Amino acid sequence: MDRLWRNARLATMTGSGLGIIENGAIGCRDSRIAFVGAEAEAPGAEEVIDCAGRWITPGLIDCHTHLVYAGSRAREFEKRLEGASYEEIARAGGGIASTMEATRSASEADLIALALPWLDALIAEGVTTIEVKSGYGLTTEDELKMLRAARALGERRDVRVRTTLLGAHALPPEYKEDADGYVALVCEEMIPAAAANGLADAVDAFCEGIGFTPGQTRRVFEAAAAHDLPVKLHAEQLSNLSGAALAAEFGALSADHLEYLDDGGVAAMAKAGTVATLLPGAFYFMRETQLPPIGALREAGVPIALATDSNPGTSPLTSLLLVLNMGATLFRLTVEECLIGATRNAALALGLGGEAGTLEVGKACDLAIWDVEHPAELVYRIGFNPLHSRIRAGR
Ligand code: DI6
Ligand code: FE
Fold first, then answer.
1. pLDDT computed for residue 179 by the predictor
2. How many other CB atoms sit within 10 Å of the CB of residue 176?
3. How far is the CA of 6 from the centre of ligand 2 (A)?
4. pLDDT digits (tens, 9 = 90+) for 284-321
5. What is the C-alpha to C-alpha distance for residues 18 and 55, in angstroms, rounded to an integer?
6. What whole-number distance in Å separates Cα of residue 85 and Cα of residue 77?
7. How far is the CA of 211 from the centre of ligand 1 (A)?
């Protein structure tokens, strides 16, 4: 083996709980995990690192972000403090449309430069994989520009980036009277172009009163399927349009938000193996009071993931550790559910179940090493970062 981390306590995220191994060690060969287990059984390695009893978890995974965009929505935030609603602002041409204008005006290099500090904040907390969505360009050219910027983040930093085409995020002003025409553009131009250029790992849509109807979302999903791209969906965030069930029908990797999810949606997701990605940052920032149906999701065995939803309008948040705390305090998830939600289940939500999210032989050697006495501290503390070191692909 190339490298061995010894004298560690491991939370492997395998099995039913955290998969704890005391007196553990992890070995790495050619950037992959080659040994996980008791230190006494570990083979030799060229380089041996003494972890002094620290905890090792899989590198964290932020499986839902809108990290690439330009412009600020701080003034819109002020308006909301004065009483304007998110929907009112959106319908008056602000909200997503204002970020769209700034993003269209920005170059690919501008977008990369803007996103890097936010990405660095995530990386500083042990994040080794992020998903980044487009959705603020809303022309084929600007959506591809966003996806290229997102991919470039993975070259500027040592982080695995998965990109998602979210062309059906909002209706751009030039299609104001022609939503179906815009959906046709997404299906006939954006999705084929993103697929042809290898720029998207998945396709997403915003199925909502201020977004796209279930019928329009279906057309987007059909186009994605025609290009062999898996789908995800912003579903049941502000109202219940049965979007999650539609996503499940297409074997979606995940349905996200889900505050207004009903029993039928839960059952459909369970049957399809669709991950429920919960976004407590948006719940908090929007002062939402409707809780996602955690008990029903749990009972049905739907895997629950947690993510930042980092975006300028509803979750200007770049701390996945804070999301873990919010998952527990706001959604009453257990410590185990929170930690699994930002590792194993987050990997599933990105179609990376075989590659990341747990400490298992054969997976990429992506590790977070923590100065904590127990993994519960990662969920418990607010605004403190106990990361000792972060290993991505064995380094
Ligand atoms: N749901 C959200 O919370 C974000 N997008 C979406 O579909 C909000 C995006 C924004 O307001 O800029
Ligand atoms: Fe989102």
1. 97
2. 10
3. 39
4. 999 999 999 999 999 999 999 999 999 999 999 999 99
5. 12
6. 10
7. 10
Q: What are phi and psi of 47, to 5 degrees?
A: -125, 130
Instruction: Read off the tokens for 295.
Output: 């008990």
List all residues 6 or more positions away from 195 whose beta carbon is below 8 Å from its beta carbon: 227, 228, 229
Taking only the tens place, the pLDDT of each residue in 106-146 is 999 999 999 999 999 999 999 999 999 999 999 999 999 99
pLDDT less than 70: residues of the chain: none
User: Which residues have a Cβ under 8 Å from the Cβ of 53 and sit 6 or more positions away?
Assistant: 7, 8, 9
Considering only CA atoms, which of 295, 293, 249 is closest in space to residue 268? 249
- Residue whose token pair is 């009483």: 83
Contact call for residues 312 and 384 (beta carbons, < 8 A): no
Q: Which two tokens stand for residue 332?
A: 């009453």
Long-range contacts, stretch 251-257, CB < 8 angstroms, 24+ apart: 253/202, 253/348, 253/349, 253/350, 253/351, 254/63, 254/64, 254/305, 254/348, 254/349, 256/64, 256/232, 256/307, 256/309, 257/282, 257/292, 257/309
Distance CA 143, CA 150 (A): 11
The predicted model scores a pTM of 0.98
Q: 314 CB under 6 A from ligand 1?
A: yes
Q: Is 140 in the pocket of ligand 1 (CB under 6 A)?
A: no
45: DSSP letter: -
Residue 387 alpha carbon to ligand 2 centre in Å: 26
Q: How far apart are CA 374 and CA 366, in angstroms?
A: 20
Q: Among residues 100, 99, 103, which one has the least CA distance to residue 77?
A: 99
Nearest-atom number in ligand 1 for the CA of 309 is 3
What pLDDT score was predicted for residue 326?
98
Instruction: Report how far residue 70's alpha carbon sits from residue 32's, in angstroms, rounded to the nearest whole number.
Output: 36
Q: Are the C-beta atoms of residues 39 and 25 closer than 8 Å to each other?
A: yes
